[in-house]
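Why this split exists: single-chain examples teach little about how molecules sit against one another. For that reason, every record in the complexes split bundles all components of an assembly together and asks for one structure covering all of them. Below is a record exactly as it appears in the raw files.
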Amino acid sequence: MRIKKTVAALFAASILATAVPAQAETLRLLTWGSYAPDNIIKMFEEKYPDINVEVTFSNNEEMIAKLRATGGAGFDLAQPSHDRIYAAQLEYDIYKPLDLSKIDTSNMSVPLLDGVKANTTIEGEVYAVPHQWGTSGLMADKTKAPEFAGWGDLCDPKYKGKTSMRLKRTILLGTAFAMGEDPFAAYSDLDKYQDILDQVTEKLISCKDNIKAYWKGGDDLSAMMLSGEIVASETWDSTAYKLFGENENIVFIPPETGALAWIDTFALPRKGEADDAAYKWINFVMQPEIVKLMSASTGAIAAVEGGKDLLPDDKKAAVNAAFSDDDIKNLKFFANIPPGVEDMEGKALERIKAATGG
Amino acid sequence: MQKDIRRLSLILLFTPFALWIVLLIILPHIGMVILSLREKVAPRVYEYGLANYIDFINEPIYWNTLLRTGMMSLLVTTLALLIGFPIAYYIAKIAGNRTRGALFLLCLIPLWVSDLIRAFGWILLLRETGVVSSTLVWAGIINQPIEFLYNDVTVVVGLVYTVILFMIVPLVSTLDGMDNSMIEAGYNLGGNGPTVLRRIIIPYAMPGIVAGCIVVFMLTAGSYLTPILLGGKNSSWFTEQIYDQFITRYNWESGAAFGFLLLAFTSIVVWLGLKLSGQTLSTTVAKS
Amino acid sequence: MSGAPSFPVNCVAQHMETTAEYDLECISVSKKFGTVQAVDDVSLTIPKGSFFSILGPSGCGKTTLMRMIAGFEHPNSGDIRIKGKSVVNTPPNKRNVKMVFQHLALFPMMNVFENIAYGLRCGGVPASEIETRVKDVLERIALPDVANREIHQLSGGQKQRIAIARCMVLKPDVLLLDEPLGALDLKLREAMKIELKLLQHQFETTFLYITHDQSEALVMSDNVAVMNSGKFEQIGTPQNLYHDPATAFVAGFVGDTNRWAGKATSSNGSVIKLETDTGRQVSGAARGTGKISQGDKVTAFVRPEHITAEKLDKKSRAQTAAAKNVISGTVESLLFNGANSRVLVRDQSGDLVEAEVVLTGGSQDMKPGDDVTLNWAAQQTMCFVT
């Protein structure tokens, strides 16, 4: 008798267990920290009660490494930067093409949308649409380094021991621009690019002495800047805006050769299982009222018409303090990374790190 | 029947261990070996070959970093032994039963928080505007803040702090097993302090010393966060190299090769250490 | 020499002024651990070349005393002299007093040769001399071939001898032995007792032996100090201790005895009559220093070998003399041990009395259930005031 009951209970339980996913879909997001704040997830799940959102926070490199490890399985929506789609797709086949008819692109900023489409089209298929954009550039404490203006100033002996940078590809590109080269144009001619890289490497090795330390994340950069241990640094704009909120003397400085701009996108992993939910999420977060919440969380500007105006007031003030219209026109969008470039850049970074000249 | 049951229970007892070894250690390593032998010729096209290992040999940055990591790890191991031995001796031989527990607990405290928090603790203490520097300025010992962070010394200090418990535990357990009268006999027969230490205590504790050194060396050479976060502009660590290969350069093949080279390198160092000290794995690590 | 012992010790008293003849002297040594007085005002002198034992129950302070002599503990007061020189402020490694530890403390990471050579090396003896001296000492302990063995390859008795050789190779003034036989099995222990005594003769060195086993102390020693609660109860030759104990503790601790508690019913100073707590009348003699007067509480000891047990028949009854104690009882059990056989007799007052008996294996032997009389001389009842 008891056994029968147990069996019945088990049976019922198993039916329930299999029934749940049939009703409620899970949307597994692979995205940046702060790109899926709790309040937005809650609003989304209220609108679509049959969808559960699970979030994994990551960065460009790890996103690709994770998707590569599974051949594009385990997640339903990823948000790599626009320059990280083309080569990764060619090399590892980790994304699937988007069905643009399911995405409401009407309010997306046209130049950004076209730019991302152009960057991520392979064999006529589009693999990504833009979500938010921002820049990498410089920041400085106006009171201590009032004349700070370009990438090269990081190596100015005036600020010896008082500057910092992140030893990643951004600083290679920025330094190349500062030296009067156009690294993105050289992507098509890798020999030429290697030449540029060699010069950049030399420059950054000789600059090592000037640097206090290479920062590794927003936290240590903020601490160094706020404590006054450094007066200027290469930075992400969002970090600079955050610091502006705490100390108005710390401003983001678009380098005179142009801030390097990135666009974080939406892309579907090749073995994603909840495409519909993913499209729903894309359309949901691109609505103006959600964009406002999202930008408040991320500090980045949404890729919609008038995205800057949808920033919260303090961020808007920080952006206005940083950018003139000329600066915006001068933005250098990261170009697609062709296969092989990551290796070249990686070697350059290793040489800089290993050099003991500084 | 009886025999079958015994055999069955043996199999059941052995299975988790075998599964663990095969699924989590042997299989991944085989995978890594295969991966490390692949060379990329073009996008999505691979060939088998030794190119990744040849790359390592041809690029001084790589093997310099590996050697540097090895030397620093040996330094950390030596320091951990020099600092840990007196502590272990005090805990095992001098402290009373009650203080012994408390002292062990004190040694454990660094392990209660994660690597990351521990590193941030050091950063707070040692940065230019940090606790130590400000205190020294306040006390008038130095007149300008000093940056203690971002150099090799800090990395070594941070690593020693992290791993010293793994030195102390095997030392305490071997020294604990040593009869006090052995030390007294050493004095009684005419030995002075250094003689007793050199001829009796250290030879007796050798298995613990070697076990501790092996564990500490492996942990140090394989550590990632502490050297990355505390290290300065020139402090490269081989694990960082591996991470870079895997993650930022998408070069899994050479990352796997590097992983193997690190494993081989540390194994050789440990083997040399065992040979030089005349110990074997079974008398040291397996014992304590 | 202050704080003289509170009991008569002949061998000490005679040579008090010429201290250099003694290998070891302890003068009023005291040691306190917290509130525990481990060693309380203890004095002893050991003449050159003798075998001296300190006998006492565990916790009596004998190990502490020995550790002070070796230098591992520092006395709170008093003086310790070796060959007439005070060593109180000499560190243990500078004292020419070597010690055989309870568990021997041979060094497991060295072989036999290195164990013995250790002390010589510490003393800076040249290598060639070490070689010959180690060889020499190994021959003297009759283990000439073990030099290259590891310690764990030796038997218990061999280890014992190596431990002694390790000390003797250094030609110590005094060799301290801390219950070194405790870990051996009975048979080996008996053999080692004799061997130790022989080794002592052979090396002609002063041995100070610590034990809680009275048979070890009695068999081997020239002199024995009986220690209790941090103090010496008596120092004397083994015979002296056995036949003429100075205190009730010594009488009870050294050798087997029957023991009764009671009260003196009459006393003329040396010969007394007493009534035991179970109501038996016994006559005895006062021993030790305390005088016994009527009404004093008394503990009486009678050694089994002094009690004669006889089967109860009319002939023997007639032989009972007035000077003797006579009681009758029933044999409860026989404790056969060859020449040392004993009989346990339940007397009328319900006490068990142990007496020596000769068991020849013939039909005349006593059997459990036999009625017997026990008699002994009043002089053999050793009485102490309690």
